[in-house]
Amino acid sequence: MKRIILINLFLFCTSYLFAQNMDNEMFSLTKIREGVKSKRVGSYDKTGGNNDRFTNIKDGEKMVIMNVEGAGIINHIWITIAPKADKVNRNDVILRMYWDGNSFPSVEAPLGSFFGNGWDETYDFVSAPLTVAPAVGKSYVSYFAMPFSNGAKIEIENQSGTEISAFYFNIDYVEMDKLPEDCGRFHAWYNREVTKALPEGENEWGTLGEQGNNLTGDENYVFADIKGKGQFVGVNYYINCPTTMWYGEGDEMVFIDGEKTPSIVGTGTEDFFNTSWSPKELFYHPYFGYPRVNNETGWLGRTHVYRFLLSDPVYFDKSCKFTIEHGHNNNLTLDLASVAYWYQHKAAPLPRSFSKEERKPLPAIRAVDIHLWRDAWRNAHGNKRDLWGNEK
């Protein structure tokens, strides 16, 4: 009985507080808008039939799925593809978005990585702005607001090596006479790097001796290097770790407006992603989580973490270089990829593109690889028949 009373009290207090907050999303739905009209572009069958898809997209082919003029804001995207990901790797289908008639994209990323599935994998992913929906990641959904004042174009490019037999999509947006002047432009950028260990080795947790310090962030992995005024609003981070050692002692270091010393410095990778103590369990929150964790010994293998800074964006006036260490003092070799999301005062080009070969993930380290390393270690220690493994 006491538990029921407490639950009811919690629900009452939550509802009361929600109702009093006139800035909340539900309250904003009551406002009647002027000069705004809902529109959609989609793959529906224009004949009225049921063939609601674009078909037979050849390898190497680009397809424009949205090309509209005027001002507006995209507020919803839904996509699904056939065949399955084992035939068409979703990270070899490239998504590009162009704002305001520009010839350069301000969004460019593999479709899977953009929406929240890394590597050549599909899995369910849940967050507030992005979701990969059930049935083991069959559809891709975005609720990011994407403003434009002079046209919007979205295209995909098939780099999978095979044909996309069916591409379904709906893109919902609002059309308006004039975009509010304070609306920034949505940007997203995919980065990928196989990081280099320190010359003295992968000295994590001081295993090999005294550890060094990192004050400059020169060798940090880069989520985004932004020139202009705006706000950084999130990242999907894909980590492939070739060792059983914890990959996440690296701190985030954020350089705002050209500063030489970062004004934002973290306490560890898992801490930036709002977790703690080296987790490896599935967890979903609207703003952060672990939708993919390794099932190997220690932290060997693939992990996907995300954080969306929807209530706590990182603001900047001139520039923002958002980085993170790969292990403490950048001591680990890791296969890293990420998609960063931000808004700028105007559409801007991205740092660079990545070819299919450059995106190809390194193979997973297997139990047999570790056994081969052990055999080499045994031989280096005289191949005694009772060697255990912790001898130095």
From TrEMBL:
Keyword Signal among record annotations: yes
Pfam families, per the entry: DUF2961 (PF11175)
Keywords: Signal
UniProt cross-references to Gene3D superfamilies, sorted A to Z: 2.60.120.1390
Signal peptide annotation: 1-19
Protein name: DUF2961 domain-containing protein
